[in-house]
Write a structure and sequence with these properties.
Blueprint (H helix, E strand, L loop, with lengths): L1 E6 L2 E4 L4 E9 L6 E7 L6 E6 L6 E3 L7 E6 L4 E6 L8 E8 L2 H7 L4 E2 L3 E6 L1
Parallel strand pairs: 2-11
Antiparallel strand pairs: 1-3, 3-8, 4-5, 4-9, 5-6, 7-8, 9-10, 9-11
Length: about 120
């Protein structure tokens, strides 16, 4: 089992930036793919971004391409989500996720392990 703890959420004005962090612990070797999902009020949870173990492969939802950047530091077992040019539609609870591979996460829109979530609110 992998434990995931997110941080970095908050309130920001439209056009602003936030950087989320997710620290992983436990059997992280079983989960090469790391990523982020989000869930807005009244909506289903949606895939945002994923990154491979090496960091060479990244995957993004169309809605965040060009604005969000996912990265990871394997020495710290931490994955990041840099969010720029934020819009009110980005308001949601953001969840860190781990899966066997990043590709599987992006294609299947699934995670094996989940964090508790961090709230991101973008005001207009």
């Amino acid at each position: 089992q992998v434990q995931l703890v997110e941080s970095g959420g908050g309130l920001v004005q439209a056009g602003g930036s936030l950087k989320l962090s997710c620290a992983a612990s436990g059997r992280t070797f079983r989960r090469n793919g790391m990523g982020w999902f989000r869930q807005a009020p009244g909506k289903d949870r949606e895939f945002v971004a994923a990154i491979s173990l090496s960091g060479d492969a990244t995957y993004y939802a169309d809605s965040v391409k060009g604005r969000f950047t996912i990265s990871r530091d394997n020495t710290k077992n931490t994955v990041y989500l840099q969010m720029n040019s934020l819009k009110p539609d980005d308001t949601a609870v953001y969840y860190c996720a781990a899966h066997v591979t990043a590709q599987a996460m992006s294609v299947l829109k699934q995670g094996s392990d989940w964090g508790q979530g961090t709230q991101v609110t973008v005001s207009s």
